Hints:
The chain has 596 residues and is an alpha+beta fold. It has helices spanning 14-18, 50-61, 66-80, 126-130, 141-152, 157-160, 162-170, 176-189, 193-199, 215-227, 236-246, 265-270, 297-309, 316-333, 344-347, 350-357, 493-506, 512-517, 533-545; strands at residues 37-47, 90-97, 102-108, 172-173, 211-212, 274-276, 279-283, 286-290, 407-413, 418-424, 474-478, 481-487, 521-522, 529-531, 550-551, 565-569, 575-579, 588-593. Strands 1, 2, 3, 6, 7, 8, 9, 10, 11, 12, 16, 17 and 18 form a 13-stranded antiparallel β-sheet that branches. A 3-stranded mixed β-sheet has the order 13-14-15.
Amino acid sequence: MRSVVVASLGLVTLAGFLAPPVHAAPVRPAPEAKRPVAEGYGGAVATVDLDASKAALSVLRQGGNAMDAAVAGAAALGVTEPYSAGLAGGGFIVYYDARKRKVTTIDGRETAPRAMTSTAFEGIPFDEAVTSGLSVGVPGSVAQWDTALRRYGTMPMRQALRPAIEIAEKGFVVDQTFHDQTEQNAARFADFTSTASLYLPGGEPPPVGSVFRNPDLARTYRELGIRGPDWLYGGALGREIVATVKKPPVRRGATRNVRTGLMEVSDLRAYRALERPPTKVAYKGLDVYGMAPPSSGGSTVGEALKILEALPKVGLHEYLEASRLAFADRNAYVGDPAYVNVPLEQLLSDGFAKERACLIGPRAMAHPAAPGSPDGSYAPCPAAAQGTPGASAGAVPEEKKEGPETTHLVVTDRWGDVAAYNITIEQTGGSGIVVPGRGILLNNELTDFTFGPAPGDPNLPAPGKRPRSSMAPTIVLKDGTPLLAVGSPGGATIITTVLQILVNRLDFGMSLPEAVAAPRASQRNTAATQAEPAFADRYGAELTALGHTLTDVPGPPAGEIGAATGLEFLENGRVQAVAEPARRGGGSALVVSPRR
Ligand code: GLU
């Protein structure tokens, strides 16, 4: 149902938004065309990849539910998008259980090994930390799949892994994105014997149009299905992962400084996926559910929405300013709640949002915005406060580079269950290290910790701690029933992409496909706002006149923010699944049946 109101766009015109986005340019026809939008009944799925969408759809067609299909889709993405997803990574699922009419989340975030200290990354150049054993977190995906299937699914893991095994065995056709991502990683992949032999056959990235097989991964999935998660969490596969982390298979003659990791089999044994309550905020009569800490996704999207709701109008200027303030608070207060006291309830409260909204005036506020005080005691708006940066803002920690790594999928089934699922191995290509003979890339998720020195930072490493994430799988309910689900990759830009899509859809009157395709900008309490070229072309002059500074989005791929997927429930049970028309090569939306 589209019962939302078109709000004022301020200086930025609605007509501008609804012009065809540059990203909607037709994509090259594939052998079997990927479609970014599909509508129908009986279940739907959207991922970045046709094979993965088909894998999830096949599970729905076999009678599986949305959780079964989400796991099947994620496992398939581990084959076809191995630089973004895999069983040696982690992720977050936000799930609407139609029978219980309840939203829950499953946290499969990686953890730091017990031997990790708060200074473990201090002084290490970021790029060196990425390609290392040190950055490999205890993998969470397999425990997450197991918990998700046991609590909410209907299938054993071995059945949910079947479509992925088939793709790994038979192979998939290499597209431009896979080729380019391999090429971007070629120098470091070449430095590990296991990675080079899998992803650089003959010393080169596999050519576009060739068929890529991963028989080792097929065997790994098959054996996992037979032996169960303990094979990883303490068993033989776990021992192989630990051995690889402690002694990465560096090519003889390589000059790269590859630091070794701290993971032990006992760390794997201690790992648990956690079911957590979601974050929840009311926005314009809807309920927006997101991922709670250790992700900052739900809290930051939620806080920004509450700030927007406290403003007299919502336009692009307000979107950027609300995001700036919410990021100041995210950086100051959000970390793993088992280690830091995250004031989540206050961050999402009306009182705090109103106090923060006072700082937003007609012009961009001075940089940087200081964090607020989510302490439960909130002052009314002082008349002179608008547009000021708040109290002494202090230094803002430099942000790490955000790329289009990670992936997001959405699934719904015939019963109305909905899964929004972010899965990741952190950087595109993770740590760059393949476990020999297993066909899986290890994650580098621990580089999501603050490297420091940063006394008091909520996201410093600690034994067993989960690094703060930005992943923001989101489900919106209207009157207790799902209306929308959305999510994206892109590091910290995930938060702004999800927020912008929600604002596009709920405030600016766009359809979901328009909201996903529209040009993006990302403001994360940095001096300049990153903007896609089409965004800068259209809105740059108006926003610059308000004191905003726009800057290019660094690549690769340059000029692109995110790669979203989403779905919306239209009238009379009709579902619309939505993927990107062009970003990251375009995504794939499928429905079980186009007709009722
Ligand atoms: N590691 C990132 C996070 O959890 C996700 C990967 C990415 O998209 O950068 O926020």
